[in-house]
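Provenance and format

Records in this collection were gathered into a single text stream. Each protein contributes a sequence line and a token line. The two records reproduced below are adjacent in the stream.
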Amino acid sequence: MAGYLMNPMEKAQDIMAEEKEIKTPKKEQKKEAREAKKLEELQKKLDESKKQLEDSQTQIQQGKDDYLRLMAEFETFRRRSAEDRLSLISSAAADTIKGLLPVLDDCERAIKMLEGSSDEAAKEGTNLIYDKLMAYLKTRGLAVIDAVGKPFDTDFHEAVTQFPAPEESLKGMVIDVVQTGYTLNGKVLRYAKVVVGA
């Protein structure tokens, strides 16, 4: 009954207050829904950013791995190229020096033939040529394989024939050299052809 006795102004205020109370929860619900939607969008963006970051880190790591692999391959290629170049140079030098060995053989034969000769100029000239050629080849790494009086060694000697040893101590030893052997920088260029005591 008190509500009927109310002043119309008061009644209007009560109605407005009730409407306000009814409208406020709806507004708050809408606001909360908007904020929840924004939060959900932000979470999606954060998840996408995390995924992009992980993808970027994976790509960076893969790039680093590819770079290291490429550098290792390049280093191997560079080293192999240098080795091939050195091998080519040394084999070219070996071939050139191998081609000069018959000249050395001819000089040695000429020196042996001239030992009994009375022509001193020929002896001196032949020795001079042989010494100069041998000195030059020694600077390039050529060395004579010493064979006479040494034990027969298949790493340096090639047996042409066996000959009965005049003494027991010469069995298995090199008695004579048929063709001089040479090494080039420690590697056999030509085996010494020898006669072995049997």
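Adjacent record:
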Amino acid sequence: MNQTTEPRQLPADCADGADAGTFRLEEVPANAEGMPERPMLASPGQLDLRCMDCMDLMREFPDKHFDLAIVDPPYGRGEDGGTTQCHGVKQKNGKVLAVADGGYEKKEWDVLPPPEYFNELLRVSRDQIIWGVNYYAVNLPGGRIVWDKVNDGSDQSGAEIAYCSLNQRVDVVRYMWRGMMQGVSIERGMVQQGNKALNERRIHPTQKPVALYRWLLDNYAAPGQRILDTHLGSGSHAIACHYFGAHLTASEIDADYFAAAMARINAETAQTTFFN
């Protein structure tokens, strides 16, 4: 028999706590107070989403607890809100299309993670996919994933690079992602979506698309695996894990981003509940 609870308000100081947003719950053995020992979630995917510091989160788990970590730490490029750094995208006809400012509040979080972050990440996970590997002063020999953002003509990066411990290859995925210019699908990533109403809504200055995370899961993970995300951000990874059937544990330290991500995940899946 499944059990659910009514949604509740996030605490104002949740960045210092470990409030977890989850999905539909299964019965699990109760403790002395009659409460389940931990939230266990029914298929399609188990999500344990917490508003807390990722370093505190990782310290909770033993060595190699997670099958795979798919993480997107800060790159240290000042992309944490404020005035947009992209001024326009050159079209095929030669005209430059202005990119609207996203209106994101300046948060000052885009600083490089300390070495201790990578030590803990490698400790708690068997394998890793780490976006932004080209920005970090860490030795991560192995494979690479290149995300071609199909934004030729933009004054921003045309691709992003991730470390992949699962192989020694360089894999490439092509999916258009530049403001209102988004791909039709991951299979037709080089074709721009004509109906902008179908575009993914942007809620975070460094948001990655759900389609990209689903491609990562399809190619490097298996349903039922335990996956870690240390920087939940917009929640795209959680949505992809929900539909893929993976068990995601994720944290986001910023209370505003966390609340926005939970609202987005709730709207996308229409199954979210909160575990007390």
